[in-house]
Amino acid sequence: MATSLGFHSLSDERATSLAVDGSLPAWLTGSLIRNGPGSFSIADGQAVDHWFDGLAMCYRFTFDPGNRAGTAVDGADDAVHYRNRFLDTDAYADAQAGTFDGGFATGESTLRERLAGLFTEPYDNTNIIVERVADQYRALTESPRATVVDPNTLTVADDVQYDGPEPSGQLVCAHLKRDPATGTLFTVETEFGRTSTYHIHALLGDGDRRHVGSVETDAPAYMHSFALTPHYVVLTEFPLRVNPLSFFKPGRQGPFIEQFEWQPDRGTRVAVVDRTSGELVAEPRTEALFGFHHVNAFERDGGTEVVFDLETIPDATAIDDLSLETLRQGNLDAVAGRLERFIVDLGGVTGSDRYGPGEATVRREMRYDEGTALPTVSPARWCRPHQYVYAMSMDQPTTEWATGVLKYDTETGAVAEFSSGGDYFGEPIFVPRGGGPEDAGVVLTVALDIDAERSRLVVIDGESFDERARVELPHAAPFDFHGRYFPEVQARAET
Ligand SMILES: [Fe+2]
């Protein structure tokens, strides 16, 4: 099946300047850095089993309108300087040596060994995203260990793990959330114990962090992301739960993720935590649901309502099926979701007053149920009301990867879809032009041309949603996870 090309192993590492077919906007002078599983092969003919365990590969696309760096690019006016590289982590070295036993879900080691690993030496196969934390570019995964990456060369400079006095955990939300108004980054970690705890921190500029608050739970949930508004951190505690004590029972073996059990009777708790005081101000419940990605969140009605958009996965039990074998066969139901809006009524009281049980409520609104994956909004709208959501267009249920990118208007329900030939698309990243309407800017996405067995970067105009430029890559890149656009990572003329 054609989709399987997106799950192949790429061994090719390149640093090259590429011609742009079309034109880049003059203001697009930064870099898109993407991250994902680049290879599933390990030494001695072995391979990882789970998509999330592929070895971290980063891809940098540096935009150079007018080719100010002066690199030869076949006469094109504009250039994109491309670099892809495996992150040279301990996990990568282990894979070369044939000793890699996975991090997330691969391997036959006992769960006890796996948990011991989480407590003593977290894995560093940081293949999910690259985020800027102060002056560092950190590749992240779901362990508390991050890899510091040079944004130009994609070489590994260091690895970081917090070891200060603030509480910390063993499992980390892969996605940080940033408030663009203050620049503050928030992170959520789960500390396993007899009573387990979700710890919320604000990351400070000097690599340190400030403990915001903690929320206790009797059975930790698998949470890949959370929501952030100007005043609140919102945890959606899905009923995909683990009993931490089960880690220590003898005889239980298997992938880490498979130890989380779908317990729909628990429903879903929405924990709203004050960003300043750390107080749990509301914890309404709704029915059982699951999702990986919170799209965006904001407050309205004078701060009495917290609104967040979440991509829900209709069949939560399908996340057991993210093995490479399953995905390569085209069973992609765990990847595709739908856009839902959740409205938390805080009970009509603002501030840090504690609400009594049952005063706060949450209601759900289905917004787009025709299939999405990896939804995003303009970073200029983070923590603020947004009109547009961008996502891969992926049928649900589906046996095929995303054949389009969509732009969903949350105000009118209108949908614009971009597609080209039979290309398969990755996560769309919106880059705002600065000023003008919310959709003034471009959408960057990497497409996989199945027929040509090559990938290309596609630049889509945000307003018209028409193609504006494309750049052919020298190889077929496997499907990756997430990217960020960094305006400050720019092309430099050779001297
Ligand atoms: Fe993610």
From TrEMBL:
PANTHER family: BETA-CAROTENE DIOXYGENASE, CAROTENOID ISOMEROOXYGENASE. Belongs to the carotenoid oxygenase family. GO terms for molecular function: carotenoid dioxygenase activity; metal ion binding; monooxygenase activity. One of its GO terms (biological process) is carotene catabolic process. InterPro entries: Carotenoid_Oase. This is Beta-carotene 15,15'-monooxygenase. Its cofactor is Fe(2+). Keywords: Iron, Metal-binding, Monooxygenase, Oxidoreductase. The keyword Iron applies. Pfam families: RPE65 (PF03055).
